[in-house]
Write a structure and sequence with these properties.
It is built from five helices and no strands. By secondary structure, the chain is mainly α.
């Protein structure tokens, strides 16, 4: 080698002596703290979210069961105090709720959030029907039936009432 390159080769490269001090130790400790915090969050955050979702499911189940019990109690009281057509409709709501009670007693602790949502929708519909009954808006009406008219037709007797016939 000739020229300027040859002279560069001969120059020894010197570096500053690295002195370990407080800043270096602080940087190393800070690096390990950051890594530990990231590992902690990588493990703790999914676990915590899973626990929160489990609690949310439990709360949803409890709310559905409480709404169910409230509506069932209201329907039971209403069936005894309403007029006849509305009382029979309230009794049907009550019987529907009584049948669902067996299911909730057996499988209530295993309800999924989707099943809780479906159950809540059904309860909302039943609550709407029940509210209509309380507002005296029953779906059915009591129709007075004159059985005598039909019995006379079956016997082949004239359809006019017996009071208008001449006495024999």
């Amino acid at each position: 080698m000739t020229g300027p390159l040859k002279s560069m080769v001969k120059i020894p490269i010197q570096s500053a002596k690295f002195k370990k001090d407080f800043v270096v130790y602080f940087a190393i400790v800070l690096f390990f703290l950051i890594v530990a915090a990231e590992l902690f969050l990588a493990v703790w955050l999914p676990w915590h979210l899973k626990i929160d979702s489990m609690w949310a499911e439990q709360v949803a189940r409890r709310e559905v069961i409480e709404r169910f019990d409230r509506l069932r109690t209201q329907a039971r009281k209403a069936a005894a105090s309403m007029p006849k057509p509305a009382a029979s409709e309230a009794a049907m709501i009550q019987k529907s709720l009584d049948r669902a009670t067996g299911y909730l007693n057996r499988y209530g602790d295993r309800l999924t959030p989707e099943q809780c949502r479906i159950f809540a929708e059904c309860l909302t519909k039943l609550q709407g029907h029940y509210s209509g009954l309380n507002a005296k808006k029953a779906y059915s009406a009591e129709i007075p039936l004159d059985a005598g008219k039909f019995l006379r037709q079956l016997r082949g007797v004239e359809t006019e009432p017996q009071s208008n016939r001449p006495a024999k």
